[in-house]
Amino acid sequence: MTDETASKDKVERLGFFENISESVKHVGKSIETQGRTIREEDKISSLLVPATCIGLTIAVSIGGWARLIVSTLALAALLYYVLSRIGIMRSLNERQAALIWHIVLSVFLLGLTFSFVFLEVLNRIR
Description:
The protein is mostly helical. The chain is built from five helices and no strands. Helix content is 80%, strand content 0%. The protein is globular, with a radius of gyration of 19 Å.
């Protein structure tokens, strides 16, 4: 690798908000160029995500067992979505796989924490 190639591959450090903005642009460009071919299974799981959001929105307005059933189906749909894409990890080098794993874990913890905060806010409002 030449010095020119090394400097080209090197990512400069940015400020907090600039980093977020540039990262979103980079991911968008990557999806646009690399995400055109989608397996049939991925199309199905991709449709489950908006269906899950709609289901959860409806579940907020209903109560009892219906809410539990809708929430359980939503959880199963999202779990299927994640697990159907876990094979992507095999195409990454070890460093990339470790970074992605930490991102997935942190998003899981973020969602769990958000759920607890949301439930606490709902309990305070009632």
